[in-house]
């Protein structure tokens, strides 16, 4: 495997870093709001599922 000099490595890093596309502020805010909304919706969904399963288990255990 060929050795890369530190100078060549730095040059390659700069070339690759110049290819990065950073999102705009608006894209970042929109994505953050979407992630927050989905987190809240999933939390409510799993709270409901957990409550349902808790009720089922409690009902089944009360039959014993």
From TrEMBL:
This protein's record includes keyword rRNA processing: no
Which superkingdom?
A: Bacteria
Protein's GO biological process:
intracellular protein transmembrane transport; protein secretion; protein targeting; protein transport by the Sec complex
Q: How does it sit in the membrane?
A: Single-pass membrane protein
Which InterPro entries does this UniProt record tie to the protein? SecE_bac (IPR005807), SecE_sf (IPR038379), Translocase_SecE/Sec61-g (IPR001901)
For this chain, the family text in UniProt reads: Belongs to the SecE/SEC61-gamma family.
What does the UniProt function comment say about this protein? Essential subunit of the Sec protein translocation channel SecYEG. Clamps together the 2 halves of SecY. May contact the channel plug during translocation.
| Complexes and interactors | Component of the Sec protein translocase complex. Heterotrimer consisting of SecY, SecE and SecG subunits. The heterotrimers can form oligomers, although 1 heterotrimer is thought to be able to translocate proteins. Interacts with the ribosome. Interacts with SecDF, and other proteins may be involved. Interacts with SecA.
Q: What is this protein called?
A: Protein translocase subunit SecE
Native organism taxonomy = Bacteria, Pseudomonadati, Pseudomonadota, Alphaproteobacteria, Sphingomonadales
Gene (UniProt)? secE
